[in-house]
Amino acid sequence: MEDDIAPRHLRVSHAEREHIAGLLAAHVEAGRLSPDEYETRSGAAAVAVTRADLNRLLLDLPGAEAVRSREILVWTDKRGDLKRGGDWLVPARIVVRSHFGDVKLDLREARFMTPLVTLEVDIWIGDVDLRLPPGGSVDVDEVRTHVGHVTNKITPAAHRGDPHVVVRGRLHVGDIRTRY
To answer: In angstroms, rounded to a whole number, what is the distance separating the alpha carbons of residues 137 and 105?
Structure first.
């Protein structure tokens, strides 16, 4: 059923509402929102039903331009390394396809639109190096490698972290490593 619904129409969780309230608070600290605007928007976040409801609260603030253009980041390359790091806006879903080359995805300084991120990989030959910020968590139970290893150096927690990254898919030849 989820495949039939556009991501912006999916219902949101308490954690997603709280995450948006935290982003709004950061914009108050930076002077982009007045206390009254924050109160109005955080109230709307508390009763938001869908991702579109939450996204609407951020669209006029820096960092939201990627939400307007895409909800999914599709990253492809036939040969060569794919790297992303620094300050960037992470969508709810990232799809990586590569025939030959390594993937380095550094989320330590990234900003997240949702506390849950799905990373789908389809790589023939190459390694995946995923770095999470402190407090993040990862689920690697749905990723497979035919020749290689999955190494998770992120300590399992009793509760999901923020962000929580779910890695799915396959590597034919290569390793997956997750760490802080």
So the answer is: 15
pLDDT digits (tens, 9 = 90+) for 92-148: 899 999 999 999 999 999 988 788 999 999 999 999 999 999 999 999 999 999 999
Instruction: Please spell the DSSP secondary structure of 109-123, one letter per residue.
Output: T-EESSSEEEEEEEE
Residue 25 confidence class, pLDDT cut points 50, 70, 90: confident
43, containing H or E segment: helix 35-46
23, burial (CB in 10 Å: exposed 0-12, middle 13-18, buried 19+): buried
- Pairing status of strand 93-100 against strand 116-125: parallel
Query: How far apart, in whole angstroms, are the C-alpha atoms of residue 135 and residue 180?
Result: 9
CA distance 95 to 88: 16
pLDDT for residue 160? 85
Residue 85 pLDDT greater than 50, yes or no: yes
Per DSSP (E only), the strands in the chain are 72-79, 82-84, 89-90, 93-100, 103-106, 111-112, 116-125, 128-131, 137-147, 150-152, 164-173, 176-179
Predicted model pTM: 0.65
The answer to whether residues 167 and 138 touch, using CB atoms and an 8 Å cutoff, is: yes
124 in Cβ contact with 147 (< 8 Å): no
